[in-house]
């Protein structure tokens, strides 16, 4: 389906991937793919309709009721490893197309898609870590606990990391024995259709996976569909509330991986040189378009000026520009409306009284593209909107504190609880922070997105986990059999 690519050419797709086959769409509308770095239309794909969703769900239901349900965990493991092999072969191509459609630098796209390979291989090994059948004795009775696949899964993923998001959900779902209808965001369709080519090459059986990049209407149809047993959603908290309410209406199983406003607590003993590399990558890497980004930086009041100067200097020196340039560190925002959103929050921060230590505008050397300068706010109070609401852009809010007690309180004073970090050489401080900050993951003297461990959050960051044995649990139903 794809053409031979040079560095900046992108594929075009004229058919939908439904149940393992490339088929004509039910409608004649198309989604235009707009380059965030040039603002030009670079490709187009067919726009699915609810009728296409119905066809995909029917194929998934037939496959689940048929041969796929009879596959063994070992057979599914082998399939996942074959998918990983196919993705791994094309990592440079994925990185190039990701740069074209989303604007992520190729230097970032390679590792991100390498992480997707790791996710698939991790899922392929779950059959060795999960007991699908467990025998027990209960008094005079023999009991078997059987963990069965939940059924047909509707999986909805955002545009910021389509292949990684798809790998995380597909890996667990397929390892569990489910079938999947995957709905990527319409802004990132090309890499997900390339993933479909990888599924095809790996020999995914008929009906087991469909991929339908589409907008909200199609997504709601999938969520409401009576033949979808479980919905797994990654996206904004507001959209997640809607998905959760729709699933609640029909008691459908649902997992939600939502927004974040994660805090990095920098203790008084932390060294600047030890903090800045992972702090800045964790805060504004991928231009801040990561749900687990460290967007609140909590520093001792006595060192606030020192950290503000160092962070502003480092952020101002980041290379912002063409995502195909290997020297580029930050690309554009993925779309115009996202740049508008980020710029509106920068203006809100000004009006709230926060000070801009660096950035705050569009890069002067770039006359096209949805670019925003890396922006650091100081003198931020945790009650300000820029400290409480997810911006999803290259914007960091620095907040001062007077004691570790206060820092922990500030970190927890948020509607979110997705990620976080603590930087200190004092093990007692580290142990206290990681035990008292209410968040789904927290790192000591580092920050990352871990592909092999459970990922998810507290509070309005969602519920459920993805990755690891904890991630597959959401795709299994437990049956008790007494003999």
TrEMBL record:
<dbReference type="Pfam" id="PF00171">
    <property type="entry name" value="Aldedh"/>
</dbReference>
<feature type="active site">
    <location>
        <position position="257"/>
    </location>
</feature>
<dbReference type="InterPro" id="IPR016161">
    <property type="entry name" value="Ald_DH/histidinol_DH"/>
</dbReference>
<dbReference type="GO" id="GO:0016620">
    <property type="term" value="F:oxidoreductase activity, acting on the aldehyde or oxo group of donors, NAD or NADP as acceptor"/>
</dbReference>
<protein>
    <submittedName>
        <fullName>Aldehyde dehydrogenase</fullName>
    </submittedName>
</protein>
<dbReference type="InterPro" id="IPR016162">
    <property type="entry name" value="Ald_DH_N"/>
</dbReference>
<comment type="similarity">
    <text>Belongs to the aldehyde dehydrogenase family.</text>
</comment>
<keyword id="KW-0560">Oxidoreductase</keyword>
<dbReference type="InterPro" id="IPR015590">
    <property type="entry name" value="Aldehyde_DH_dom"/>
</dbReference>
<feature type="domain" description="Aldehyde dehydrogenase">
    <location>
        <begin position="22"/>
        <end position="481"/>
    </location>
</feature>
<dbReference type="InterPro" id="IPR016163">
    <property type="entry name" value="Ald_DH_C"/>
</dbReference>
<dbReference type="InterPro" id="IPR029510">
    <property type="entry name" value="Ald_DH_CS_GLU"/>
</dbReference>
């Amino acid at each position: 389906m794809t053409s031979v690519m040079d560095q900046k050419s992108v594929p075009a797709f004229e058919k939908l991937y439904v149940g393992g086959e490339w088929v004509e769409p039910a409608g004649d509308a198309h989604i235009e793919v707009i380059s965030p770095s040039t603002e030009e239309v670079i490709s187009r794909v067919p726009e699915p309709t609810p009728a296409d969703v119905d066809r995909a769900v029917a194929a998934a239901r037939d496959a689940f009721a048929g041969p796929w349900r009879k596959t063994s965990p070992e057979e599914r493991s082998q399939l996942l490893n074959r998918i990983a092999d196919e993705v791994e072969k094309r990592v440079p191509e994925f990185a190039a197309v990701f740069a074209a459609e989303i604007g992520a630098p190729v230097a970032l796209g390679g590792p991100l898609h390498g992480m997707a390979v790791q996710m698939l291989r991790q899922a392929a090994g779950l059959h060795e870590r999960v007991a699908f059948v467990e025998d027990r004795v209960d008094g005079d009775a023999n009991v078997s606990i059987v963990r069965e696949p939940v059924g047909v899964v509707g999986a909805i993923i955002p545009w910021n990391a389509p292949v990684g998001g798809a790998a995380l959900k597909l890996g667990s779902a397929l390892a569990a024995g489910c079938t999947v209808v995957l709905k990527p965001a319409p802004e990132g369709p090309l890499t997900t259709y390339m993933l479909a080519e990888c599924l095809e090459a790996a020999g995914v059986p008929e009906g087991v996976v469909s991929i339908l990049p589409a907008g909200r209407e199609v997504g709601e149809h999938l969520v409401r569909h009576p033949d979808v047993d479980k919905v797994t959603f990654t996206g904004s908290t507001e959209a997640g509330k809607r998905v959760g309410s729709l699933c609640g209406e029909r008691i459908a199983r649902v997992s939600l991986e939502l927004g974040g406003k994660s805090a990095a607590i920098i203790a008084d003993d932390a060294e600047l040189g030890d903090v800045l590399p992972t702090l800045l990558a964790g805060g504004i890497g991928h231009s801040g378009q990561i749900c687990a980004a460290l967007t609140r930086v909590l520093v001792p009041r006595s060192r606030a000026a020192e950290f503000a100067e160092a962070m502003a200097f480092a952020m101002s020196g980041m290379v912002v520009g063409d995502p195909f340039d290997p020297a580029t560190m930050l690309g554009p925002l993925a779309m115009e409306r996202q740049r508008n959103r980020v710029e509106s929050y920068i203006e809100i921060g000004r009006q709230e009284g926060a000070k801009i230590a660096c950035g705050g505008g569009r890069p002067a050397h770039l006359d096209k593209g949805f670019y925003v300068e890396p922006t650091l706010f100081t003198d931020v109070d945790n009650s300000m909107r820029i400290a409480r609401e997810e911006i999803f852009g290259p914007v960091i809010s620095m907040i001062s504190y007077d004691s570790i007690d206060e820092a922990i309180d500030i970190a927890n004073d948020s509607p979110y609880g997705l990620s976080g970090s603590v930087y200190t050489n004092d093990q007692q401080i580290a142990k206290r922070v990681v035990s008292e900050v209410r968040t789904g993951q927290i790192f000591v003297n580092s920050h990352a997105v871990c592909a092999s461990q459970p990922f998810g959050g507290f509070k309005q960051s969602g519920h459920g986990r993805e990755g690891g044995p904890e991630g597959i649990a959401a795709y299994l139903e437990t049956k008790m059999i007494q003999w």
